[in-house]
Specification:
Layout (H helix, E strand, L loop, with lengths): L2 E2 L47 E7 L3 H11 L9 E7 L16 E5 L7 H11 L4 E5 L3 E3 L3 H9 L5 E5 L2 E3 L8 H9 L17 H7 L18 E5 H7 L10 H11 L3 E5 L4 E4 L3 H4 L1 H15 L4 H4 L11 E6 L5 H12 L6 E6 L9 H6 L3 H10 L5 E4 L11 E5 L9 H11 L4 E4 L7 E5 H11 L12 E2 L4 E2 L3 H9 L2 E4 L19 H9 L2 H12 L1
Parallel strand pairs: 2-3, 2-5, 3-4, 7-10, 8-11, 12-13, 12-15, 13-14, 16-20
Antiparallel strand pairs: 1-20, 5-9, 6-11, 7-9, 15-17, 16-17, 18-19
Helix pairs in contact: 1-4, 6-7, 15-16
Organism: Glycomyces albidus
Pfam families: Glycos_transf_2
Keywords: Transferase
Length: 539
């Protein structure tokens, strides 16, 4: 087996040419999540050029909002490059803008057709003019350089998700005035507003520390990019599709997952901080909060830990999209490729059988003549299986699905081979795994995030996030290795040699042999004796 580390090239691809880390000033080739290759500008030499829109979704709590805006009025980021959009989620009484606020501050009200923080953020982004969106909760008091610290990163690359730092403090109404907050923040003493020993950190700090500041890549690094304070380029926000307004709780986690799928690099910004006024719901009512979120997140985020403990089933977003080009294969050959996946622990899949033609004819003449017989049998065998679709052409890659497995033809798969292929991909942290198929082109297991980032870096498109450029759908292979080169360079690639079984395993046409005890009973006992034996064994 050959492993290609990030920065190297598979032997089956054209020789990877060493080139500058950056294809453009804003799209450097960052390996996995190692953002330390970037060099944010320093205060001495920096002249900011990007405009930022601070979007604040808010519902009630006018007093906290006043303190949030007072702190923003004292930021070091140039006032002519910063605007604030406060989104009132139909508060009663309506929110108002205080006198002490940033120069460019607007108040908009959400439409009554929806509600919640996701709808508020989307509404704010729709009204924002900045090139970068910084989402800030309405109960946050930011340090003087909080906005500037995040914006430094966005001047180095346009596909970063920068997470701001915060500490939680119990809130007492009337404790501070906006003028007091503004004065402390303006002179750089925001940390003195509260006693550090009375505050608590967020659980995400443990994740950040455990992953060396997120540079040790893990597929679930995205989960730290939640709520309170964080920023990304406006265009990248749109690429990911914005927040899901159907989710009243957990929308930030689901959005962060889609950002990772789109190829985002997650950066924890810890040189500045902010005070979170009050303890969040998930800390005060952790168990109840988890129960309220699990069904929604599990349906949409295959990589989340809650999902990994569940038995395989049909989910809204599967772990793997498996595309099998059927061609002229018969139903037994198709079942040999599909059954081991559906029936085993690798069943968190959505399988598309690509036929290259429309549905099989069902008229008398066609059936009696045998026209389309194999396709009819395939349609009948899988017509009631919700995890299997039959299509004339390969579907567009689904950017929400983390992995895509492409088989150029049906082959008998080994039990657990898809799972072991995934394990190999995660063990070597690869973006592409080529599965050996005797006598033909290899199967391809693609990491959606890796291919999405490669497309963003190179500015290519048209085939969709997670798909390889120039693929010939009739063959299920990649005619151009250019995108594979980039993936190999930023994420790595490897080979898998144990995908295909010598004989079909566990399909309806090739059932597994009976165990020794069953064969013995059938040979030496008649049906009545076997029934009595089963009754005795059940006691």
């Amino acid at each position: 087996m050959l492993n290609w580390e990030a920065g190297q090239c598979p032997l089956s691809l054209p020789r990877y040419r060493e080139r500058e880390m950056s294809d453009s000033p804003k799209r450097p080739r960052i390996v996995r999540n190692d953002y330390k290759a970037l060099h944010p500008p320093t205060a001495a030499s920096w002249q900011p050029s990007l405009a930022v829109s601070v979007v604040i979704p808010a519902y009630g709590a006018q007093e906290k909002l006043d303190l949030t805006l007072a702190a923003l009025a004292a930021q070091t980021y140039p006032a002519d490059l910063m605007e604030v959009v406060v989104v009132d989620d139909n508060s009663a009484p309506p929110l108002r803008l205080p006198e002490l606020r940033p120069e460019h501050t607007r108040l908009v009200t959400t439409t009554p057709d929806s509600w919640g923080s996701a709808h508020g953020v989307n509404t704010g982004v729709a009204h924002a003019d900045g090139q970068v969106i910084l989402r800030l909760d309405s109960d946050m008091v930011a340090y003087r350089d909080h906005v500037e610290a995040q914006m430094r990163w966005h001047h180095t690359a346009d596909y970063l998700a920068v997470l701001g730092h915060k500490r939680f403090i119990a809130w007492e109404p009337g404790r501070l005035t906006p003028e007091q907050v503004h004065e402390k923040v303006l002179v750089g003493e925001a940390e003195a507003l509260f006693a550090i020993e009375d505050s608590t950190t967020h659980w995400i700090e443990k994740v950040i520390a455990d992953t060396d500041g997120l540079t040790a890549h893990h597929p679930t690094n995205y989960r730290v990019f939640i709520g309170a304070t964080g920023s990304l380029h406006r265009d990248f926000f749109k690429t990911a599709g914005g927040l899901d307004t159907d989710l009243r709780l957990g929308s930030d986690t689901e959005f962060a997952y889609r950002l990772s799928q789109a190829g985002a690099v997650f950066v924890p910004e810890t040189t500045s901080s902010a005070w979170h006024l009050g303890i969040p719901q998930m800390q005060e009512k952790e168990e109840e909060g988890r129960r309220q979120r699990v069904p929604y997140i599990a349906q949409r985020v295959p990589l989340h830990g809650w999902r990994r403990t569940a038995a395989p089933r049909a989910w809204r977003v599967p772990l793997v999209d498996m595309v099998v080009h059927v061609g002229d294969a018969n139903v037994a050959e198709v079942d040999a490729a599909v059954a081991p996946v559906l029936g085993g622990p690798d069943g968190d899949v959505r399988i598309t059988l690509v036929t290259g033609q429309g549905p099989a004819p069902q008229d008398r003449a066609s059936i009696l003549a045998g026209e389309g017989a194999q396709l009819r049998l395939v349609e009948e065998l899988y017509g009631s299986e919700s995890r299997v679709r039959i299509a004339a052409r390969a579907p567009e890659p689904d950017p929400a699905v983390p992995y895509r497995l492409l088989l150029p033809r049906p082959v008998p798969l080994r039990a657990r081979s898809v799972g072991r292929m995934l394990q190999l991909m995660e063990r070597v942290d690869a973006g592409l795994v080529l599965g050996e198929i005797p006598g033909g082109p290899p199967a391809r297991l693609e990491r959606t995030a890796a291919f999405a980032r490669a497309r963003h870096i190179t500015g290519t498109g048209g085939a969709g996030i997670g798909d390889s450029a120039g693929r010939n759908d009739s063959a299920g292979i990649n005619d151009s290795a250019d995108i594979d080169q980039v993936v190999a360079g930023i994420w790595g690639a490897t080979n898998f040699t144990d995908l295909v079984a010598p004989e079909p395993e566990g399909s309806v046409f090739n059932p597994p042999p009976a165990d020794i005890a069953r064969r013995f009973a059938r040979k030496y006992f008649n049906a009545r004796q076997r029934a009595r034996l089963r009754a005795v064994l059940k006691r």
